[in-house]
Design brief:
By secondary structure, this protein is α/β, with parallel strands linked by helices. Helices cover 29% and strands 19% of the residues. The protein has two domains: 352 residues, TIM Barrel, CATH 3.20.20; 68 residues, Immunoglobulin-like (Sandwich), CATH 2.60.40. The protein has 14 helices and 18 strands. The strands form four sheets. The protein has an eight-stranded parallel beta sheet. A six-stranded antiparallel beta sheet has the order 11-12-13-18-15-16.
Length: 442
């Protein structure tokens, strides 16, 4: 391929932090209006982009043969899976109205926040509004029956020019009518890349600074050639395993280095330890619940390595409650989501201060957002990661201890910029307490 360099992203992106909102778990109200009231809080953290889980009309077909396995296993009996669409052009009344979304976006913009919506284009629901009128919009077998793909949902037929046009106009619609700032695209690599590239071209023409996030992993970096600005990576699952003692910390280095193999030069990745899938599927082993002592060390890695840090729904107050994408105020016996009272606890206060400090550090030290990552060999690869962030005329060393034991590492002659113990001078070696990090210049 001739061009093996990632597309140029909007200039603000390298300094940005993303915050994911799952409306069903974000507030007891579960609506855009109630979430809008929380936007000043999110902005106060230093966050720049808010990403909403799907808010479009979900399919309410009660036939369980068209439900995903985890939807059935959730036990909530809710037919409306937020990732199974009925109408891509309508806001689900569960969350509010068109005017509510417009107000949410306006308030976000007033708080210097950009808003990303979640597009689910690989599949739709079995009673999607267009299936009868446009039978070619879904994949069909040799007998003309609708073909269900992953999760028992009908696959959309991207061989249909009319289906493509319908979805491109959908992308344009929410930019033009609601002033949204971009999209997170569900299972993006299950959708033809040329579809995303044309969609990106069209929304770029409507609004400068559009952002596109691909939910795809290793081997899909070519999506960033023209369509996407950034994509997922496997850090959340690896970080969970490291904190549980199931994998060495060096696995995070291996994951980072593997991203450069066979991908685009300059490809960008989000860095996170949690998201709606992890909090839904792995509640009993959520990192925040079982390994709370180590979460901040893992978050420090995400904020200090290259990439775009990503916070999930209540992570800033160390929330560890169950979040199911299948429960809401109508199914599940009441609100199941963030316990905001945790913000008043010592642990919640400490986490908020930590998040604000990490974001401020990134803004204050250009090497942390613009510099190259250069790995340093760690004397304790099973627990400690060490690397440099090298910018123009500036070099910053980061050491992160992801283990439960204190470690002493050689880092002579460096000024301590940030640590739990405050600033100082590192003379000869540095003591890393359990689950801690050091940021040093020199």
């Amino acid at each position: 391929m001739a061009d093996m360099t990632a597309k140029k992203a909007p200039g603000f992106l390298k300094n940005s932090v993303i915050y994911q909102i799952n409306l069903r778990a974000f507030t007891p109200g579960g609506t855009l209006k109630s979430a809008e009231e929380m936007l000043p809080h999110i902005a106060s953290l230093g966050v720049d982009l808010v990403y909403l889980c799907p808010i479009f009309l979900a399919d309410d077909d009660p036939r369980e043969e068209f439900w995903s396995e985890r939807q059935r296993q959730s036990g909530f009996g809710n037919p409306q899976n937020m990732y199974r669409m009925k109408d891509y052009y309508s806001i689900d009344p569960e969350y509010g109205t068109d005017d509510d979304l417009k107000s949410f976006v306006r308030t976000a913009h007033d708080n210097n926040l950009r808003v990303l919506l979640d597009l689910v284009y690989y599949h739709c629901g079995p009673t999607a509004v267009f299936i009868d009128e446009h039978p070619d919009f879904v994949v069909r077998d040799e007998n003309g029956a609708v073909k269900n793909g992953l999760w028992h949902f009908p696959e959309l037929n991207f061989k249909s020019p009319a289906l493509r046009e319908y979805l491109w106009r959908n992308m344009e619609y929410f930019v033009r009518e609601f002033d949204v700032d971009g999209y997170r695209c569900d299972v993006s690599n299950a959708v033809p890349l040329d579809f995303w590239e044309e969609g990106r071209r069209r929304i770029d023409a409507l609004k400068p600074g559009i952002v596109m996030l691909a939910e795809s992993f290793g081997g899909s970096e070519l999506e960033q050639r023209a369509a996407f600005d950034m994509q997922y990576c496997s850090i959340p699952h690896i970080a969970c395993a490291v904190l549980a003692g199931e994998k060495p910390a060096s696995e995070l280095r291996r994951e980072h280095e593997s991203q450069a193999v066979g991908g685009l030069t300059g490809a960008r990745f989000i860095r996170s330890t949690d998201n709606h899938d992890i909090s839904n599927d792995e509640y009993e082993c959520r990192t925040e619940k079982l390994h709370s002592a180590g979460v901040e060390a893992a978050l420090a890695f995400c904020f200090l390595i290259d990439g775009i840090p990503f916070l999930y729904n209540g992570q800033e107050i160390a929330d560890s409650r169950r979040h199911s994408i299948f429960s809401n105020r109508f199914h599940g016996g009441g609100y199941i989501g963030i316990d905001w009272s945790n913000a008043a606890t010592p642990r919640g206060k400490h986490r908020m201060a930590f998040i604000r400090r990490m974001i401020e550090l990134r803004r204050r030290i250009p090497a942390l957002t613009e510099g190259e990552t250069v790995w340093m060999d760690s004397p304790f690869p099973e627990a400690v990661l060490t690397f440099r962030r090298e910018g123009e005329g500036e070099s910053v060393v980061v050491a992160v201890n992801l283990g439960p034991e204190a470690r002493t590492i050689p880092l002579a002659g460096r000024h301590v910029i940030d640590s739990e113990g405050g600033a100082g001078w590192c003379d000869g070696s540095a003591e890393l307490p359990p689950f801690s990090c050091l940021v040093l210049r020199g």
